[in-house]
Design a protein that fits this description.
The complex is a heterodimer of chains A (916) and B (109). Chain A is an alpha+beta fold and 916 residues long. Helices cover 54% and strands 14% of the residues of chain A. In chain A, the strands form two sheets. In chain A, strands 12, 13, 14, 15, 16, 17, 18, 19, 20, 21, 22 and 23 form a twelve-stranded mixed beta sheet that branches. With 109 residues, chain B is an alpha+beta fold. Chain B has a single domain, classed as Orthogonal Bundle (Arc Repressor Mutant, subunit A), CATH 1.10.10.10. Chain B has a three-stranded antiparallel beta sheet. In chain B, 36% of the residues are buried. The chains are: A alpha+beta (916), B alpha+beta (109).
Chain lengths: 916, 109
């Protein structure tokens, strides 16, 4: 008897009978018994007696029966388990093949579904990869990060306002370190700012962070190479200056050579010894990258000579690690008590401060940082898009399953079990979700790269845009999506009214599912409305921000500073000759810059909006003391060259600007801003009047004659209360200094002028170690980011949602028409006019959109209260935007319904009715 | 005589090269062809067959013997035949090596 290849189906039927554990056991016993009997027969044939044959057969079996039976059963069970797993997998493979075959027949449907899912899954994976960094994991390399907190200080200002701050002097760090018992560690850091690294043409600007020696141990980070610095090296008496290199700089400047340990490097023209390298992506308790870590004592010494005792110098942030078992509230109490007991400063406001512990994610003022808020919004919005996508896909699947009723009914009639049918339908959803996830990965990688570069440029990203987290998230989303969208069709497949379906053909029976589909369409439209209204509001905010009159035009202003070796030592030694020489170098640089063909204007200035500002004692005749403005700011003084206002784009309102003749030694003159003119001279022209300014210890006797009035310029923020500001000619300043070269290049020549400036200045003075040129706009831009982010994200996602919704509407309408072909044919046969058929279909499509618009508008108005604080000069209920979005959606709805409606009117009644 | 597990697998596969057999047929085939020198432990053979079925080397189906009894018939699969070719050659080589060494006598050098 020859057993050929047995067909799978038959084999499966047989396998089913012995699948269970119990039957595997019976199977094994039976096989054993069969062999035993055959052996007995053989032995009897050889002449053994019945009893001997039995005994010998048992012996040949391998000892006593009890011994062997268990072994045989075990091997049989093992085999059954392994084979049933293989069987299941192969069945699953069959299901997938069937699904793919089915979907290929309906490629348009599959394409729609996968594209929709790709958008939803891609957007989510991208958002989560951002949120993972900002919301969940926070900075890398912090061991047990929820026990590490930043110390905040709350005080009450004299005007009764609460102030929150996290900047301290070294002395507070010292108190918390030595006078508290709640902390396993206390450390301080001052991260931010840049230094020049290296010398000459190879010099680059690096981000630096000053930290106390206990900082690294507190976080729990371990060095990549070498070690971190110790207490001896972080002391004013340290024998040599040491640094720890960031991983990026180590790779960049030293090719990742471990031999860098012990070498000396030059930073801001001072020499440091490298003791270690931080691991890749280590950013301390913040998210921005740091290239060089250096001891806090060096930073302190650069702040003030009394840095270990001064209460009014506040330059560092303090982090703590809570001891195990210590609650934050108790630690806060402990810190407050220690601070108050140790406070020896003079400020009564500070003396009563309360200390609290807050998350590392918050900003120094205790608020959630912008990046965190934004990523929270991103995740929320992305989730909404995914919901819309799922609703859309569920809609398409319902439509398809309605169309497949007949096929499913046939399958049931041919003997497929309900469970099998459900599995088939469900597998199809899994295949669709998997396809969507793969395509979504492409979307995600693009979106992630975009978001990192454009929206969150100040965050150190270590993982590549598409790493395993994003893969894992996509897979997880796909599984959830498959379950969510697959459930309804699968359940429907489980209860097909067999006979009914076969009889009814593909006609839709019952209004329940079409109501469900209508609801899903309305929800999609509503969500699109909400997102697009959000987009509109943020775009309008951004437009308003961009069109703000700052009093200057920073978009085309280059700011150039010269860095010299040993800046501090020259000044402290009072090397007058060198100071004068440097001033003349800057002067020549300004003149040469002005002569460059790509430059419109150039000027020198001391003090520059969004960069630096100075104050001096000021007296104006007629005022015993100057009125305090709402901004609370002291009057600002700027010393500016002749071409300054042309260079930065300021506007002279009355009188004149400074001329070349206004310089050191010439008649003291001044220009005041509009606020000063209107308040201090009460609207009369101040031109020709006197103002008196000087150092604190000087009598104010020298009249500076006012020669002009200039428009108010913002000094720090995009929106701020007006301040008094006055300008004196460059060269007439006393008691403040630090000139900056400002240059206005011709449009489009910014980059080439930047290079020319650098070459020209290095050529002019070989002693210059580094020329730093930045755009003034770069100082302003970060302040626009909230609106830029909101506008970008909401527009992107709102348009996505609208596309998805319109595709959904179109497909639903198409299916509706296809299903109602018979009904429409009857109507046409009975004499309905084309127009009435078109309007019949049209009305239902547009009706759903209008319902969605109404719901969406109501939700938008309600949600406005949350969005309001994030907007700029824009009402969250802006009627123009609400109306505009509504009209847009309705137009899209009309477009999506037109084609199906026209198709409906072209139904040929004879063909349609014959087809049934 | 005790056989190594792997060896018994190969011998059973070899028997199945002649066609589908049930467990006892395989055992007696081995006994006959070895002139009674190989006495297989029946339980070990059954377990070996189970293991090989799990690995896809043989396929087992219930059938009926010539004298009307139910028995589990085994057939070598393509994978089983390939296994027999490669592993069988190795075993033969191995046995030859053993025989050579065991045939050595101290005086023969």
């Amino acid at each position: 008897m020859r057993f050929g290849e047995i067909r799978r189906g038959v084999r499966r039927l047989m396998r089913l009978a012995i699948r269970s554990r119990h039957s595997a056991r019976r199977d094994a016993e039976e096989e054993l018994e069969a062999v035993l009997q055959a052996r007995e027969e053989q032995l009897r044939a050889l002449g053994y007696s019945e009893a001997d044959a039995r005994a010998e057969a048992v012996r040949r079996m391998g000892g006593t029966l009890d011994d062997v039976i268990d072994d045989v059963i075990q091997s049989a069970e093992h085999r059954e388990r392994a084979m049933s797993i293989r069987e299941t997998l192969s069945e699953f493979g069959d299901d997938i093949r069937i699904s793919i075959r089915g979907l290929r027949r309906d490629a348009l449907f599959a394409g729609f579904v996968m594209a929709t899912l790709a958008l939803g899954i891609g957007a989510n994976a991208a958002m989560f990869s951002v949120a993972d960094r900002l919301l969940l994991r926070g900075p890398s390399y912090i061991v047990n990060p929820n026990r590490v907190m930043r110390v905040y200080r709350h005080s009450t200002r004299p005007d009764g306002q609460q102030a929150t701050n996290s900047s301290y002097g070294w002395v507070v760090y010292d108190i918390l370190r030595s006078k508290t018992e709640s902390f396993a560690g206390v450390a301080a850091y001052s991260i931010g700012g840049t230094n020049t690294f290296g010398r000459g043409a190879n010099a680059e600007l690096v981000n630096v962070g000053a930290v106390t020696h206990d900082f690294f141990a507190l976080l729990g980070v371990r060095p990549e190479v070498g070690r971190f610095f110790n207490a001896v090296e972080d002391a004013p008496t340290a024998p040599q200056h040491v640094v720890v290199l960031g991983h990026g700089l180590w790779l960049r400047a030293f090719g990742g050579d471990p031999a860098v340990i012990g070498k000396t490097v030059t930073m801001s023209d001072e020499t440091y010894t490298v003791v270690g390298v931080a691991p890749r992506g280590f950013t301390g308790p913040v998210l921005s990258p740091t290239d060089v870590w250096y001891p806090m004592s060096l930073r302190g010494a650069a702040t003030t000579s009394r840095w270990t005792t001064a209460w009014n110098a506040q330059w560092l942030q303090i982090i703590v690690r809570l001891k195990d078992g210590v609650a934050p509230a108790r630690a806060e109490h402990d810190a407050t008590a220690a601070f108050r007991a140790g406070y020896t400063g003079t400020s009564s406001e500070d003396a009563g401060s309360t200390m609290t512990l807050g998350s590392l994610r918050s900003t120094p003022s205790g608020k959630e940082s912008l990046e965190v808020t934004v990523s929270r919004w991103l995740v929320g919005v992305a989730a909404i898009v995914l919901l819309v996508a799922c609703a859309n896909v569920a809609n398409l699947l319902l439509a398809r399953s309605a169309r497949r009723r007949r096929e499913l009914a046939v399958r049931v009639a041919l003997g497929s079990g309900r469970a099998r049918l459900m599995r088939l339908v469900f597998t199809e959803c899994v295949v669709l979700a998997a396809g969507g996830a793969v395509a979504g990965l492409l979307v995600a990688s693009g979106l992630t790269t975009l978001m990192r570069a454009v929206l969150l440029p100040n965050v150190e990203w270590t993982a590549s845009a598409i790493g395993w987290p994003i893969l894992a998230i996509s897979a997880a989303i796909a599984i959830v999506v498959a379950a969510a969208i697959g459930l309804a069709p699968a359940l429907r497949a489980a209860r097909p009214d067999l006979i009914e379906s076969l009889k009814a053909g593909v006609r839709e029976s019952g209004g329940q599912s079409s109501r469900l589909r209508a609801t899903l369409t309305i929800v999609q439209a509503a969500v699109s409305v909400v997102l697009l209204v959000g987009a509109g509001l943020f775009v309008r905010s951004l437009v308003k921000v961009k069109s703000l009159d700052l009093g200057i035009q920073p978009d085309r202003v280059l700011v150039t500073r010269l860095h010299y070796p040993s800046h501090a030592s020259v000044l402290s030694r009072g090397n007058g000759a060198e100071v004068t020489r440097r001033a003349s170098v800057l002067e020549s640089a300004m003149r040469r810059a002005r002569a460059l063909p790509g430059v419109e204007h150039a000027s020198l200035t001391i003090g520059l909006p969004f960069q630096s500002a100075f104050g001096q004692k000021l007296r104006v005749p007629g005022w015993d003391s100057l009125p305090t403005l709402k901004s609370g700011s002291n009057p600002l003084i700027f010393a500016v060259g002749p071409d300054y206002f042309e260079t930065v784009g300021g506007r002279i309102l009355q009188g004149r600007g400074f001329a070349a003749a206004d310089r050191r030694g010439s008649e003291p003159v001044a220009i005041v801003n509009q606020t000063m003119a209107s308040i201090l001279w009460r609207g009369r022209s101040p031109v020709g009047e006197c103002l008196y300014w000087g150092l604190d210890n000087e009598p104010l006797t020298v009249c500076s004659r006012i020669v002009g009035v200039v428009a108010n310029a913002n000094n720090w923020r995009l929106r701020e209360d007006p301040m008094f500001a006055y300008y004196i000619p460059f060269g007439q300043e006393r008691g403040f200094g630090g000139a900056t070269l400002v240059v206005r290049p011709r449009p489009g020549l910014e980059t080439s002028v930047m290079t020319e400036l650098r070459t020209m200045i290095l050529d002019l003075d070989p002693a210059v170690s580094f020329v730093r040129t930045t755009r003034l706009q770069d100082e302003v831009d970060p302040q626009m980011r909230p609106w830029k982010l909101g506008a970008t994200v909401f527009t992107l996602i709102g348009v996505l949602a609208m596309l998805v919704a319109s595709v959904g509407l179109y497909s639903v309408m198409s299916y509706l028409v296809a299903q109602r072909t018979r009904e429409l044919a009857v109507r046409i046969a009975l004499g309905a006019r084309t127009a009435s058929i078109v309007s019949l279909v049209f009305r239902s499509g547009v009706g759903m959109v209008i319902a969605g618009v109404i719901v969406g508008t109501i939700v938008s108005i309600w949600a406005g209260r949350f969005l309001g604080p994030l907007l700029f000069d824009t009402s969250p209920r802006d009627p123009a935007i609400l109306a505009g979005v509504g009209v847009l959606l309705i137009v899209v709805g009309i477009l999506a319904s037109v084609v199906p409606a026209l198709r409906a009117s072209q139904v040929n009644p004879a063909d349609a009715l014959r087809a049934e | 005589m005790n056989l190594l597990k792997g060896t018994l697998d190969l011998l059973a596969l070899k028997a199945l090269a002649w066609g589908p057999m049930h467990g006892f047929e395989i055992a007696s085939w081995l006994e006959t062809r070895s002139d009674g020198r190989l006495n297989v432990v029946d339980a070990a053979l059954i377990q070996s067959l189970h293991r090989m079925e799990e690995r896809g080397l043989v396929k087992g189906e219930w059938g009926v013997t010539a004298n009307g009894r139910r028995a589990r018939y085994y057939t070598a699969t393509a994978a089983g035949r390939a296994y027999l070719r490669t592993e069988g050659a190795q075993l033969a080589d191995h046995v030859d090596a053993l025989a050579t060494i065991l045939a050595l006598r101290p005086s023969s050098r």
